[in-house]
Design a protein that fits this description.
This protein is α+β, with helices and mostly antiparallel strands. Helix content is 26%, strand content 25%. It starts with 30 loop residues before the first helix and ends with a strand. Residues 1-15 have low confidence and may be disordered.
């Protein structure tokens, strides 16, 4: 089961219990999750994709971004499940929000790439982040694509508690590859 990363007062959940609804005005465009991702990234790397004191409108703009891919997964057992993606991420993975938040993140890599993905995640765990990841991923429709210069980081809250991992990269740098 998916563990929602947010503590939001009147959080609304999708029909699949415990999974976050798509960003909307009703949930402030997942502002708290966007703050969690951005704050963690900022503490680790000094980089940021949101302004200093982000608003729901900033979270809306991030969620609707068609160029900046930001995806994250939680710390679900036995396997982490996606819990966020910008529009660019949803379009690249050719998936709708409700399907994404049910998808184990390992399924975004081909079987042969999964051992490389595990090495990447171990390196991130050891260092907190990796700034130059390159790898092959596969969309929900089976299209293979290579991401490059991706920044992958551990998502930790302000108390240092691990809440998941996230990845960001520019969609325009993605190259689709033959099967």
């Amino acid at each position: 089961a998916m563990v929602t990363l947010l503590r939001v007062g009147q959080r609304r959940l999708s029909a699949s219990a415990g999974r976050p609804l798509a960003p909307s005005a009703a949930n402030a465009y997942l502002l708290e999750h966007a703050r969690l991702l951005n704050g963690s990234l900022l503490r680790l790397t000094g980089r940021s994709f949101l302004p200093t004191d982000p608003t729901a409108d900033d979270a809306r703009l991030l969620a609707a971004n068609a160029e900046l891919v930001v995806v994250s997964h939680g710390v679900d057992a036995p396997e982490p499940v996606f819990n966020y993606a910008t529009r660019a991420g949803l379009e690249l993975w050719e998936i709708e929000w409700d399907a994404l938040v049910c998808l184990p993140s390992s399924k975004s890599a081909e079987q042969v790439e999964r051992s490389e993905r595990l090495k990447l995640l171990d390196e991130v765990r050891a260092n907190g982040f990796i700034a130059d990841y390159t790898g092959i991923r596969v969309s929900a429709k089976g299209r293979r694509f290579m991401i490059s210069n991706a920044l992958v980081w551990d998502v930790r809250d302000e108390a240092g508690v691990l809440r998941g991992q996230a990845c960001t990269f520019e969609r325009s740098k993605v190259k689709f590859v033959e099967s």
